[in-house]
Design brief:
The chain is α/β, with parallel strands linked by helices. Helices cover about 50% and strands about 15% of the residues. Helix 8 links the parallel strand 6 and strand 7.
Length: about 260
């Protein structure tokens, strides 16, 4: 794990998902800087894709907005953003979340080489199987850019062991099955599932999918090392009349969530 990512999990980490280029590249830069100033621990940059797997209507709409701007929202643009943010706050890890196809077309070797150069702290490919990730890990030139694996509460023990054993950086635990989006409640079994992961390997576990309330953060942070907020923040940005209002609304939520962790 990169040192900067390891340090981010020294406290309970609040992780924000941001769609690259929604509503514009310049707005994304200002938004990420504001998140950092508000106390976010880790930023996850989502690369827009025409058919984002597992994403609900809120994030799908965000991807569509970014793709329709005509700006460059490619892998290269995402890496450029990370370089900018790394210069602004080198202590804050910035990850890329992307469909496997986008990274494959860019080229795995080129991606990991350039990701290391700009200070990218990890890659999440939600639609990539553990078998394919294992193959990529065998060949990738950089140990400082971990491939972060996702696990579902439906994962059987044998497969969970296989995924966790091969994992780097942290485990992205889906709070539930289905697509992204805000939820009212979470399974009581999540705590045990985190414990099962820790029994296999001493690795941080961050929970994502549906976190939108302070009560969620308070409850889940009792046993999770980090919480990932996506749709809730994206929706706040979509529901305000100006970008500045959206950024202010999200940053207020960051402070509220951080206060209960």
């Amino acid at each position: 794990m990169s040192n900067v990512l390891e340090k981010a999990f020294k406290e309970k980490a609040l992780i924000a998902y941001v769609t690259l280029g929604d509503p514009s590249l310049e707005d994304t830069i200002q938004y990420c800087k504001a998140l950092i100033d508000a106390g976010i621990n880790i930023i996850e940059i989502g690369l827009p894709f025409s058919d984002p797997i597992a994403d609900g209507p809120v994030i799908q709409a965000s991807h569509q907005t970014a793709l329709e701007t005509g700006e460059d929202v490619s892998v290269k643009s995402g890496l450029t953003l990370i370089k900018t943010l790394n210069e602004y706050a080198p202590e804050i890890p910035v990850l890329i979340m992307a469909a496997t196809n986008l990274i494959m077309q860019f080229g795995y070797e080129a991606f990991f080489k350039q990701a290391e150069e700009v200070g990218c702290s990890g890659l999440i490919m939600p639609d990539c199987s553990i078998e394919m990730i294992h193959s990529i890990n065998q060949d990738k030139p950089s140990a400082s850019v971990p491939l972060i694996n996702l696990v579902s509460p439906l994962c059987n023990k044998e497969r969970l062991r296989k995924i966790v054993t091969q994992s780097q950086g942290f485990i992205y635990l889906l709070s539930s099955t289905g697509i992204t989006g805000e939820r009212e409640a979470f399974s009581a079994e999540l705590s045990q599932f985190v414990n099962d992961i820790k029994q296999i390997k001493d690795i941080p576990v961050a929970i994502g999918f549906g976190i939108s309330q302070e009560s969620h953060c308070k409850k889940l942070s009792k046993f999770a090392d980090g919480l990932i907020v996506g749709s809730h923040f994206v929706k706040l940005m979509q529901d305000t009349s100006t970008v500045k209002e959206g950024i202010d609304a999200v940053c207020n939520r960051v402070k509220q969530f951080k206060a209960v962790l």
